[in-house]
């Protein structure tokens, strides 16, 4: 297989070797290049032999560079290939629960092991072959796996994929080869919780220490589930039971391996009405991006920020809009901040998610239309803070395609997107913008 070079970075090793846009990359160090993993893996050496084709003639270049330095070639796409899409029809899939009419990219279901290694995405392994897995092992690629259950029959049922149970063997193959795996379990009440969750965690524990971490996250259910598998959300009782099942493996793993291995998402504690664990409990926050430890991290960072913060800006009133799940945490932080700075008033407004349905309680799925509808008649004070998670990563666009500037005009107030970082959070509450 060959890949067209679309550009070459100035002063890069490829530029020095006179490789040009329009050349076709044939091989690196004798290996055919199919995608970005081949390119990165085989080009890592300090002596790199590159074969390109130009005008029908092959041209060999020997490039000397620092080990792991990029050659500097550009391609049509980041992967140098098409993204692999998901071949499953999971009963809990959030994309299947989205309304029509949203931007097209939101409906793409990726299940690409290359993006797991490169960007931290979670993959189910169902569209991989033995050859793919051997390549992952040979390249020593630590990836993130959507496990959900280790019961083969149940996994087939949950994913609506007859191969899903058999693909579980890949987890064992990778772990036994020495790869380190992060795993996630989307937990559905009455389906893969309780004894099924206990079985899954026991099976993953048997692969320690090569299971780096496991996140158990609650299923999210929108109001757009017509014709889909009937699911329930967690309540206080079932959330507490799930925390207790997880605790069994945590204790066992901590005693033997010095790590808890598995962690429950913050939503379980908030739903159960249980106190959040202390910061040390989350170790180095390995499942932070899966919603594990976000609340505790924010609380501890705000506490640290308050110890060094100074404010002499006079009376200030700020509104913070958030999902209903985390509102209790933000209200507690508002009390701490006001106690420390009496001139600062932070009002927390939980936003009901009417776009997706009120069972969706996280801040990251709040739309502009819900913000405007529920805030337009309120006194928002000097500034409105929202979570950065409500916006696209690369531009200030909400899930319903509204621009942040449009919301600012509608509400007539300064709006500041805020990261889940306690120091930035406090600075924005105090109006300290760098």
In quaternary terms, these chains amount to single chain
Task: Give me the CATH architecture of the largest domain, please.
Answer: Alpha-Beta Horseshoe
Q: How many separate domains?
A: 3
Counted by DSSP, the helix tally is 14
Roughly how many Å apart are the termini? 49 Å
Largest sheet: 6 strands, antiparallel
CATH class call of the largest domain: Alpha Beta
Rounded to an integer, what's the Rg over CA atoms? 25 Å
What would the principal axes of the Cα set say about the shape? globular
Query: Which superfamily, in CATH terms, is the homologous superfamily of the largest domain?
Result: pyruvate-formate lyase- activating enzyme
Return the average pLDDT rounded to an integer: 92
Q: Report strand %.
A: 15-25%
Can you give the helix content as a percent range?
25-40%
Structural category is: alpha/beta
pLDDT below 50 for ≥5 consecutive residues: which ranges?
A: none
Total beta-strand segments: 15
Topology-level CATH name of the largest domain:
pyruvate-formate lyase- activating enzyme
Secondary-structure element order, N to C: EHEEHEEEHEHEHHEHEHEHHEHEHEHEH
